[in-house]
From TrEMBL:
Organism: Rhodoferax saidenbachensis
InterPro entries: BamC_C (IPR042268), NlpB/DapX (IPR010653)
Domain of life: Bacteria
Protein name, entry field: Outer membrane protein assembly factor BamC
Amino acid sequence: MNSTSKVFLLAAAVALGGCSALESDKVDYRSTAKAPSLDIPPDLTQLSKDTRYTVIGGAVSASGYQANQAATNKAPIAALAVGDVRIERAGNQRWLVVNRPAEKLWEPVKDFWQENGFLLAMDQSNLGIMETDWAENRAKIPQDLIRATLGKLLDSLYSTGERDKFRTRIERDANGNSEIFISHRGMQEVYTNTGATATGDKQTMWQPRPADPELEAEFLRRLMVKLGMTPEQAKAQVAASTAKPTATVSTVNGQPAVLLEEGFDRAWRRVGLALDRTGFTVEDRDRKQGIYFVRYVAATSENSEPGFFSKLFSGSGKTAPPAKYQIAVRSQGESSTVNVLDAAGAPETSAVAQRIVKVIADDIK
């Protein structure tokens, strides 16, 4: 066999390898403490961390975590029952209902994110909230001939120009079950100028991109497997979850409001997930009173242009000062109304309240 034939066969083998890679898993996240600094969009600031679950010695990668688990020979957490997990859906929102106490789910869910390649930037069991660091989905990088041939040698030179983070919220429902919500936040790198700098480099900045409900559904499916379902059962449940009625914007007693044809429990869940998705920080919540206490912090980057949330709270290009609001969920039978209150609990009828109501309604749809 001459050298030309050998080269041809090598190229064919590499190409076939690239094709098989395209058919492999479409989710492959990697968090790293050395990730590029992002011009964070408004209100991606974090609440103070609960350090009870902080790993001694700093952040840990997914591979390091798994190696440590093997070294310590930690016994896996067994599922209490295959049938104690189910998925529910309303509009484009999905969540899990698990017949287990919330405190029994915290560590398995935390392990789940680390096993999927994420670092945790927030870990607050007292609030029932954990949040991953920004990570890149490496499965989105095309497996071209050069990258497939050289493999990891040039892997660090490739980037999707996108970053994702996920917030997980665990709550108890009225029946003693636990509800698990996963919300996605996305960023993308865009060019800020058409030309190049004096050194020949084009300048870029990071800006928000829409939440991806299907990506949330994929991680819910994976979490169902983590909690004891077979992959086939989890896939079937996600596919079988049907959409429920959508939200509408209206005016009730002179106040802008979101109207939901659903009872309190479902409306409370959906509003909470919408707030997680759309950039508000939930500082506290009072389920008995039906109140979410939220805050909004404007962007601080001097080089960033006004983003979506900046425009939400300001008609001009100037960023708005930090503001606190209460989001009230009121229900009567199988109907619910969502209103915006100011920090003192008084009805908010301003243009800001109208925009907040629209953002919540649009996300719930």
